[in-house]
Amino acid sequence: MQSRLAARSGLVVVCYCAAWCDTCTQYRGDFEQLALRLPQHAFVWVDIEDSPELLGDEDVENFPTLAIQGTEGNRFFGTLLPYIGHLERLIEQLQGDAGHAVVEGPPLLRTLAG
């Protein structure tokens, strides 16, 4: 994860899921394909049971729960419907909007990895 975060200057797109979740299993392939189409951003898949520390004090109640992080903080944290087009549109909105509000959410992965 550290090398992936260091190699990208764009947003960090984090999907918090669980191995037992069928929705997550189906979503993961689309998430990985989107990562290939948007190589400027770092895409990170986090199994919340294997790495709960990457959530900090936040809870995940529904899957997939996503965080989109910029250098200034979390720009989005919440549940999306499991359609990759929704995530792709959200990334498009946030990547060009440096003034977007910072929201509460998990710790920044670049900070934890660095």
UniProtKB/TrEMBL annotation:
Gene3D superfamilies found in the cross-reference section: Glutaredoxin
Xref: InterPro entries: Thioredoxin-like_sf, Thioredoxin_domain
Annotated Pfam families: Thioredoxin (PF00085)
Domain of life the protein comes from: Bacteria
Annotated ranges, domain Thioredoxin: 3-69
Protein name: Thioredoxin family protein
Originating species: Candidimonas humi
